Amino acid sequence: MLFIRAVAAEDKASAIKRGISGEFSDRFTPTLSQFKEIPGTPFAYWIGAGVRAAFNRFPPVEGHGRAVRVGLQTSDDFRFLRAHWEIDTRKRGKKWFPFAKGGELSPYYACLHLTINWEEEGKELKAWVVSNPTDPRTVHWSRRIASSEYYLRPGMTWPLRASRFAPQPMPSGCIFSVRGYSVFLPESMLMAGLSIFNSKPFDYLFKALLGRFGYPEFIVGALQKLPWAEPSAEQAKTLSDLAKSAWSATRAADTAVETSLAFTLPKPLNISANADISATLAETQSKIDAVVYEIFGLDESDRQEIEGASVFVSAEIVADVDENEDQDTETSSDDNDRIALQSWAVGVAFGRFDIRLATGERAIPAEPEPFDALPDTSPGMVPDGEAPFMPCKGVLVDDPGHADDLTARVNAVYECVGQQALEEATLRRSLAREFFPAHLKMYTKSSRKAPIYWQLATPSGSYSVWLYLHELDRDMFFRVQSDYVSPKLLHEQRQLEELRNDAGPSPNAAQRKVIDTQERFTGELQNLLEEVRRVAPIWKPIQDDGVVLTMAPLWRLMTQHKAWQKELKAKWDDLAVGKFDWSHIAMHLWPERVVPKCATDRSLAIAHGLDDVFWTASDDGKWNPRPTPQRPIDELVHERTSSAVKSALKELFETTVSNGPKARTRRSSS
After folding, report:
1. Torsion sign (Cα): 185, 187, 193, 198
2. 243 neighbors 195 (Cβ within 8 angstroms)
3. Whose CA is closest to 577, among 658, 653, 654, 638?
4. Cα(135)–Cα(140) distance, rounded to whole angstroms?
5. Which of 102, 211, 253, 569 has its CA 20 to 30 A from that of 420?
6. CB 559 within 8 A of CB 434
7. pLDDT digits (tens, 9 = 90+) for 512-537
8. Is residue 593 a contact partner of residue 604, using CB atoms and an 8 Å limit?
9. CB count in 10 Å sphere of residue 498
10. Which of 16-25, 437-446, 544-553, 639-648 has the lowest mean pLDDT?
């Protein structure tokens, strides 16, 4: 058999002709037995004898304390997954656990930004997957929740589909998904294994078995069959040190990413994140590859074969990148330095981030070990029990002269860290109009939109109230009403009255213009106050519901950001018709609908703490509805129903949304 590999040739027809005549170097004449040397007999006719021999010379990855596994499928990510920054950190490791779900190509290191509800070993999730009406074939949770005996163990994970095989550590305490494949080694071999799996020789072996080089799917079954060459103690030590070096260099860049659990400071203030790591990583990778070539007994001709494969990889990628696999392809996103600095300064203003890391009053914490359990919060945050740069109770305003003016606080942060303070009007305009869209983009990952700073604004942006997710409480909107919006409205109404008195009964054109502007402004403030008053009685934030559902009742207040308002309105409508009855807000607002459902859906009963009331286990472990609930449904509904909430909810649905008149200027509260 004659094969001619013309993938990388510019003139493929000419290459094929020359291959037939024996003048083209990439011609191969394998025998049928040579194909069978690689498990699965892939159509990899170009693989040399030395590489093929590795499959017979060494044992497979699977076995002898090594395991490659696929994880769980929630069948409802919106319900069971959260970004790590939107959860109550006190529940991390109790209800919410780090979750590996594939993601982007990221050799040696990646931040796991998702968490999963795995409370009581996935009690609610297990109940859901066996009651999911769209999946009637699942009668036992293990069909969708695989390999649970490996959960919380340190291992390595990787994206399903990428240009090369490049695992990163999966620290202790994590759960992994059906797409976040994982491999487990004896703990003493984890760091050396990280080097081996990220090496060029191992990537080539993997692609040889798959029979494909451009963006293949790095599936569990294939990795299980790949050869594993055990390094000597000396080789293992060398590979471990090199892996740690690569991990540290890559993690250093992540310390400038605000949404990372490694975050310390934004890039303009972060020396380590500004270092060019490409040369360091290239040198480290070269050293790793050299050791792995030696471990697998690959000679110079094998190395030339493997090193030369990159030209074919590039050609295959151009020809066959799957555009639909957006979660698993190489992408990059660099935050704009100005926005990154501004976002950090806003975080300092709210008491989230620790300014002392920038001033040198607090040392940058030492980096952890790669497989250590992830921290509850990033090292850039103010440690529990320590005072922030400036006190804040979770509410700031866009209001010149006010003690809680966001613009003044951000400029104070800039001045403290030696950054030039911006002209007030410029910064105020940026915060009012540009910051939230940038923040929403920054805090959106894996299709989860989870902003932690919320802008409640007048339609014109002339006045804003900013809320911080992790300081929300039941009385927040009563405080917003009494401490901020009501006093602001009274102040502006007095200003309007003064303008009218100064102008007299016959104002000139200039006076009339100023009065009209002030009238529009007070009109917007009046509308804002009315909306705050409407939502205050029904407001009961529970972070377990996630940011989008927690914000959904506030959709009428998101007049500055129409796309986001539309999304919140859609979620609010879905809540109203019962689409998210697992949520606490659904139980809070519609207990008469949600409580009875708990009698027929055990996952809902668990979500609302009513599983013992409605469900009982038989001797064989199967869960069944109780013939008679331990407490009457009417009684359960009654104790969860508030007449004040129902009245406010009725008004909210019946009142027409008014964007109000538009104001173009503002007056300070001073």
Report:
1. positive
2. yes
3. 653
4. 11
5. 253
6. no
7. 999 999 999 999 999 999 999 999 99
8. no
9. 11
10. 16-25
Task: Name the 3-class secondary structure at 310.
Answer: helix
Dig out the tokens for 559 from the structure: 């007049």
Non-local (6+) Cβ contacts of 486 within 8 A are: 529
Structure tokens at 58: 């060494």
Mean pLDDT of 184-206: 97
Sign of the CA dihedral 20, 22, 26, 32? positive
Element (H, E) at 405: none
355-361 long-range contacts (CB < 8 A, ≥24 apart) are 355/388, 355/389, 355/413, 355/416, 355/417, 356/389, 357/264, 357/265, 358/265, 358/269, 358/416, 358/417, 359/416, 359/417
Residue type at 250?
T
Q: How are the residues of the chain apportioned to helix, strand and coil, as percentages rounded to the nearest 5?
A: 45, 10, 45
211, pLDDT greater than 70? yes
Q: Which of 665, 662, 399 is nearest to 520 (CA)?
A: 662
Residue type, 197: F
Q: What is the DSSP string of 219-234?
A: -HHHHHHSB--PPPHH
How sure is the predictor about 21, in pLDDT bands with cuts at 50, 70 and 90?
low
Dihedrals phi, psi of 44, to nearest 5 degrees: -110, 70
Q: Quick check: 235 and 193 in contact, CB under 8 A?
A: no
Residue type, 216: P
Rounded Cα distance between 109 and 277, Å, is 13
Query: What's the CA gap between 204 and 218, in Å, rounded?
Result: 12
pLDDT range class, residue 7, cuts 50, 70, 90? low
Give the pLDDT band (50/70/90) at residue 11.
low
CA distances from 213 to 36, 282, 297, 586, 650 (A): 19, 21, 22, 49, 60
- Single-letter amino acid, residue 78: F
Q: How confident is the model at residue 670 (pLDDT cuts 50, 70, 90)?
A: very low
Which of 348, 337, 412 lies closest to 380 in space, CA to CA? 348
Q: Give the confidence band of 87 by pLDDT, cuts at 50, 70, 90.
A: very high
Q: How confident is the model at residue 45 (pLDDT cuts 50, 70, 90)?
A: low
Residue 428 Ramachandran class (φ > 0 left, ψ -120 to 50 alpha, else beta): alpha
Computed over every residue of the chain, the mean pLDDT equals 90
CB 142 within 8 A of CB 288: no
**597 or 36, which is more confident:** 597
Nearby residues of 510 by Cβ (< 8 Å), 6 or more positions away:
none
With a pLDDT cut of 70, the percent of the chain lying above it is 88
Amino acid in position 48: G
Nearest to 172 by CA among 370, 369, 371, 368: 371
Residue 423 tokens, joined: 């002209």
pLDDT at 456 over 90: yes
CA-closest candidate to residue 246, choices 287, 204, 290, 305: 287
Phi-psi region of 83 (alpha: psi -120 to 50; beta: other; left: phi over 0): beta
Residue in the structure block whose two tokens are 């290191």: 109
**Rg of the chain over all Cα atoms, to the nearest angstrom:** 30
Residue with tokens 């539309």: 566
Q: Is residue 117 classed exposed, middle or buried when 0-12, 13-18 and 19+ CB atoms within 10 A define those classes?
A: buried
Closest CA to 607 of 117, 124, 97: 124
| Tally of residues, the chain | 670
Q: What distance in Å separates the CA atoms of residue 291 and residue 321, rounded to the nearest whole number?
A: 31
The answer to whether 582 touches 590, Cβ cutoff 8 Å, is no
The SS3 of residue 434 is: coil
> DSSP secondary-structure letter at 177?
B
